[in-house]
Amino acid sequence: MSELTFEQMLEESLKTIRNGEVVDGTVIDVKPDEIVLNIGYKADGIITRSEYTNDSNADLTTMVSVGDPMTVKVLKVNDGEGQVLLTYKRLAAEKGNERLKEAYENHEVLKAPVTQILGGGLSVVVDEARVFIPASLVSDTYEKDLSKYQDQEIEFVISEFNPRRNRVIGDRRQLLVAEKAEKQKELFEKLHVGDTVEGVVKNVTDFGAFIDLGGVDGLLHISEMSWGRVENPKKVFKVGDELKVLVKDIHDTKIALSLKFPESNPWANAAEDYAVGTVITGKVARMTDFGAFVELAPGVDALLHVSQISKAHVDKPSDVLKVGEEVTAKIVDLNEAEKKISLSMKALETADEETADAE
After folding, report:
1. pLDDT by residue (tens digit) across 299-309?
2. Largest interatomic CA distance in the chain
3. If you average pLDDT over residues 211-234, what whole number do you get?
4. What domains are defined for the chain?
5. Angstrom distance (rounded) from CA 41 to CA 26
6. Among 157, 126, 247, which Cα is nearest to 195's?
7. Number of Cβ atoms within 10 Å of the Cβ of 229
């Protein structure tokens, strides 16, 4: 068998290079917008910037060096000028799609940086293959502004894989939901009524505050914020405040919290502090037609009945008293079980008169 001539060898090699074929080559020249490759063919291969990367402003000289080996795909054997047009990006994307297909079938968790913020979600790239994560699947809570995710590396799973329709959908939400469920399970296993736990104020409403206990939210109702009276939770707490709270009740996945710690109960020593006959000073907290409620301490209100305000006839408490006014009265009745205290200013008037008469 005779040896092939140089021209025949070229002709033979030409037959082996076809559009769509994957070939190996070596970089022999790099320009900012173009890479020249020796692919063992009679003509060198050319990779334009747009066929190497999605970054339209990329400088290829900073990304590729002479001598680098590359595996590429043939786009066109002859571009009309005797050059072979190649693509690196599309081949990488095809390999990336294979990677995504495996991840989809195996329910694998992927991690990739966010490359673009779109109107309806996020775009990430895995091995040059694009994945779209709709806004509804980015988080387990509604997020209006997704810009904070730009360039951030996030984890997700592939929930839909249909490259023919250009639909490769990522889902981050289900991972967050699963993670939260695991944290909830762990927390509920070790959480008991009566425990004191640390938390952070997550949201404040008119009726209470939601406290993040580390993956689980508990409700601190307005009635449990203080032994005293709280008119507006928003004036007492703000988002981000750190608190130590008492676990008052656990019902299924709902946790009721309290700041009424037993050791600070103002009624704990009521028999001594508010014994009948004690003269005490307090501030008028609120008034009704039948009497005034006087705050003796945070969480301890006593009733000063209209008939006990003065020996003189009083039609309404508001005729002689005003909210915030400081009054001094005698404790005439104490009911610890019902947490009720009755006061009398009239009793002090009588005592003063008796003292004056004795003198």
Report:
1. 899 999 999 99
2. 149
3. 90
4. 14-91 (2.40.50.140), 107-175 (2.40.50.140), 191-258 (2.40.50.140), 271-357 (2.40.50.140)
5. 12
6. 247
7. 15
Kindly report the average pLDDT of the chain as a whole number.
88
Question: Model confidence over 188-207: pLDDT tens digits?
Answer: 888 899 999 999 999 999 99
Asked if 321 and 291 count as a contact pair (C-beta separation under 8 A), the reply is no
Residue type, position 43, single letter: A
Two structure tokens written together for 110:
């992927």
The answer to whether 317 and 305 have CB atoms below 8 angstroms apart is: no
Residue 2: the pLDDT is: 46
Cβ contacts of 303 within 8 Å, gap of 6 or more: 291, 292, 293, 294, 340, 341, 342, 343
Check: CB of residue 49 under 8 Å from CB of residue 39: no
Question: Measuring CA to CA, which residue among 174, 21, 161 is closest to residue 105?
Answer: 161
Query: What is the C-alpha to C-alpha distance for residues 13 and 42, in angstroms, rounded to an integer?
Result: 8
176 contacts 186 by C-beta, under 8 angstroms:
no
Instruction: Return the pLDDT at 32.
Output: 94
Q: Is the pTM of this model over 0.90?
A: no
Residues linked to residue 287 through DSSP beta bridges, in sequence order: 292
- pLDDT class of 69 with cuts at 50, 70, 90: very high
In order of 66, 272, 329, the CA distances from 264 in angstroms are 76, 15, 25
pLDDT digits (tens, 9 = 90+) for 100-143: 999 999 999 999 999 999 889 999 988 878 899 999 999 988 88
Overall residue count recorded for the chain in this entry: 359
* Helix, strand, coil percent values for the chain (each to nearest 5): 25, 40, 35
* Helix, strand, or coil (residue 342): strand
* Cα 323 to Cα 283: distance, rounded to the nearest angstrom: 8
